[in-house]
User: Fold this.
Amino acid sequence: MMDSMIAKVLVSAEEIDELTTRIAAKIDEDYSGRGDKRLVLLGILKGSVVFLGDLMRKLKTPHEIEFMKVSSYGAGTKSTGELKIHLDVTRSDLGDCDIIIVEDIIDSGRTLSHLVRYLKERGAVSVRTCTCLDKPSRREVDFSADYVGREIPDEFVVGYGLDYDEKYRMLPYVGVLAPEAYTGSAE
Ligand code: 5GP
Ligand code: MG
Assistant:
């Protein structure tokens, strides 16, 4: 049973409902009356999909969705990391788009800081960032998101889109795995 692998719940389904409602209301406030520019929520695969789906249903502002799949490198001795793009946005009208990157969690900050720069280079009108979870104590580059659901301590979490070995994404809350989950013994 999945739930038995969770040592503790860090963010409950009720709290997730509250934080997604709060973020959607703030985005609605910030993006009203922008003329004919397109608002694009850009989900970073795979972890952001559940959060993105919740935001979509709570936003009143009309918007479109796109996805990217990326991984960041450079956490070692180099001060400049690199972004590896596995799936890119193919549309060519970024010059008409206000983009909000939607991410599951910020850790070192490398992924989002690279992505913001990349999308601005591609000509987006504006690029903001939205994350469900944030681990500020883990930062390796100076970065803060425009919309943050909840700060959490330095613990590895799963659920609400976040995985360990592709498992646990479907849990409706965010939790910390029990030690047994890493051994693969009890399932
Ligand atoms: P960074 O901010 O270091 O560039 O990377 C953030 C990415 O690291 C997230 O999108 C996620 O894929 C992964 N990550 C960071 N912390 C956690 C965590 O606690 N649990 C899971 N499942 N992924 C994490
Ligand atoms: Mg991710």
